[in-house]
């Protein structure tokens, strides 16, 4: 049995222990924040959120939560100046008005990304890894959609060349004007959210 003196010492130490525990929890949260791991930009925050269905080459359908970059300022910004932890759990779908030949760069991006390029019908015809730096990346041929993800994401999910981005509500392709407005994205998200598949969180 502990002596009264020993019990007093133990009880008097509790405030110190609790203070150290609180300081540790604060540091666990604060260090990544100070390091910029949760940093975002106005353009990134402005991108609409939507559910996107993907039909893999093996016939599996999954749904992904994506940020939609369908305005020029959003497309120019992309993942630039975005913190590591935000980037690790985010996807960006670039939606262009029509097919065109273009290039992507990785300046001001903190880590590697995968990018999948798709035609107007949503079919993915090129997937590549992009590393931070000034190198330009683009497919051999025009595209209308580009889906950026953390490096290794497509391999993990089984998304390969030949997979297809699919609209909800029974539509099987992404033709011109498939995403004419944010309201259309909201309606599409509500519809596809009820379908069975996988969710990126």
What does it look like?
- By secondary structure, this protein is of the alpha+beta class.
- It folds into two domains: 1-35; 42-192, Jelly Rolls (Sandwich), CATH 2.60.120.
- The chain is built from six helices and nine strands.
- The strands form two sheets. A seven-stranded mixed beta sheet has the order 6-5-8-3-2-1-9. Strands 4-7 form a two-stranded antiparallel ribbon.
- A hairpin with a 5-residue loop joins strand 5 (113-118) and strand 6.
- The N and C termini lie far apart (51 Å).
- Residues 26-31, 168-183 and 189-201 have low confidence and may be disordered.
At a glance:
The chain has 201 residues and is of the alpha+beta class.
The total strand number stands at 9
CATH topology of the largest domain: Jelly Rolls
Q: How much strand?
A: 25-35%
Query: What string, H for helix and E for strand, traces the elements in order?
Result: HHEEHHEEEEEEHEH
Radius of gyration: 23 Å
CATH superfamily of the largest domain: Protein of unknown function DUF192
Q: What summary fits the major beta sheet? A: 7 strands, mixed
The number of helical elements comes to 6
Q: What CATH architecture of the largest domain do you see?
A: Sandwich
């Amino acid at each position: 049995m502990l002596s009264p003196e020993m019990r007093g010492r133990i009880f008097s130490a509790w405030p110190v222990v609790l203070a150290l525990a609180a300081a540790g929890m604060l540091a666990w949260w604060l260090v990544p924040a100070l390091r910029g791991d949760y940093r975002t930009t106005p353009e990134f925050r402005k991108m609409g959120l939507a559910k996107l269905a993907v039909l893999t080459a093996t016939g599996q359908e999954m749904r992904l939560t994506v940020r939609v970059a369908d305005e020029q300022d959003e497309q120019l910004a992309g993942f630039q100046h975005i913190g590591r932890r935000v980037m690790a759990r985010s996807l960006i779908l670039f939606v262009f008005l029509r097919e065109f030949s273009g290039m992507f760069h990785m300046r001001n991006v903190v880590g590697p990304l995968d990018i999948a390029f798709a035609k107007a019908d949503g079919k993915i015809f090129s997937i590549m890894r992009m590393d931070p730096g000034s190198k330009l990346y683009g497919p051999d041929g025009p595209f209308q959609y580009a889906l950026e993800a953390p490096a290794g994401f497509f391999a993990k999910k089984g998304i390969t060349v030949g997979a297809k981005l699919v609209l909800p509500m029974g539509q099987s392709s992404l033709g011109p004007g498939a995403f004419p407005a944010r309201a259309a994205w909201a309606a599409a998200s509500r519809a596809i959210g009820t379908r069975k598949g996988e969710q990126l969180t």
